[in-house]
Amino acid sequence: MDAPQNKKNRIKKTFRYLEGILYLLKTIISDRQFLYISCVLVGISSALAVILLKSFAHWVYQFVTYLDALYKLPYFNSILPVVGILLTVLVVRKFLDGSIEKGTSQIMIAVAKRSGYIPRKQMYAQIITSSLTVGMGGSAGLESPITITGAAFGSNFAQNFRFNYKDRTLLLACGVASGIAAAFNAPIAGVLFAIEVIIADMSVTAFIPLMISSATGAIVSAVVLKESILLNFKEQFVFDYSNTFYYVVLGIIAGLFSLYHARMFRRIETFTAKMPYKPYKKALIGAGLLAILIFLFPTLFGEGYESIKVLAHDKAAGILDNSLIEKFNENKWVVFTFVILTLFVKSIATGLTLGSGGNGGNFAPSLFVGSYLGYSFAKFFELIGFKELPITNFTVVGMAGVLSGLFHAPLTAIFLIAEITGGYGLMVPLLIVSSISFAISKHYDKYSMDIFTIADKGLVFTSDKDKNILNKIELHNIYSNDAEVLTTENSMYDVKNLFLTSSQTFIPIINEERNVLGIIYLNDVRSILFNNYKLSSTFIETEMKPAFSVSLSENTGNALQLIDENHLSEILVTQQDKLIGYVTKVKILEVYRENLKNLRIE
To answer: Is 0.85 topped by the overall pTM?
Structure first.
């Protein structure tokens, strides 16, 4: 009975001992040197999380494959995702306070609104829930949970050793870079992902810590993880300039398909998440629909990286294994049609996985659909006898195209594929396809799919420091609720008396339900107030102007933007469309300066 407790106490004692050594080390060496050591430790922690997640997911995939080969269990790979999602919901409700943050957007919110603070539970919550969801076959990716876990390691390490805001945010980014580097053995892509997607305003001096963490993650992953677990290719890739036109066309198609995938995923996830059922019933319905899709399209099981390798080697017939049409695997047109259908269904499967309560991300699905898209594009020309395009090249370049379009991260896409293919032989087509796809996607969708919903509401602007500070200021902490108001039943004499007896330069006009009807400004009616004839013959309705207002739930950046655009000194604040007060530009700037000063002090 005491053995487990003794072991737990020994572990705690060891960690306290190591922590004490680090505190001592911090007093001996310079702050910059301690930051570099911290980058290594955060990198190792993130890499170990990656190893745990990837190994579990790979083990489950091998287990399912083994059982199917041994016992011919056609339904087993459909049942496991249902169990995994239900277990995920159970863990979230029973052990994680009923909620869990999903997607890389949560990291950006932490940077923009929480000064780089990420809750401690995220260091283990993502590992547990995503391993249950994706590891047991949910049609999503592990990379988003990996990045959140890495960011949580970096943030909490920085909190523990009292790093300032700048270095805390940097260590958060180091955790992200290490996670991506370890997941793909791609250190350059890890650095670029942290800069392009997570923290767009990093200075040049941030590159060294990011590179240290990213390299650490890649080294630990390469030493511990088996090569078969990682997505990589050993072929020699050669670019034929005569195919340039086809790569341009693939870039256009990849950009358009990125828009389809992002919008279909959001639609399905939102619909599933908003089903009017209790969590377990919702999870059962959503996972049940996912199970049907996986039964029809077995390659939707889990991350799907194994099927990417199958396509890249032009052995697409293999993805029909365990499907209802397995016997047609010799028919090239049937196989081609099956690949196309899987390509379009993947976004639905991922939406069901995450909307029903599972945890995962869209990084792996973007690579999945990108490879299927590239393969289909090249295979089509071969099947119609028009031109034989290099299947492997187009399959891997397609991954970069869709990744670039979905995450608005062309550099990450280019170097990730370059690194997992072991060279830069495809650099030119990667540049072509990724840039075109990014341009098309960016034209139609201002924000990437991961931050679309929060950025549209103005919740996160990681590339704008001023807005980051403004968005940290909550309106409910700075608005005033002492505004004197009138109704249309009042007269202009009441307007005059209110201006004479208060310091207000404006008067909101409301109805009985406190809905704002308009506003009267002192400067606009000054000539009327001191002319008795005009005062008696003028009505409030004729002098009030349309009132600008913000909801209490909106961010302060939006309020200041409205004030500036309309040349105002203040703006009304509402809650559920009812007037509750106002906030002045002077107050916003005063609190902004105080926050800016605090960040500098940190």
So the answer is: no
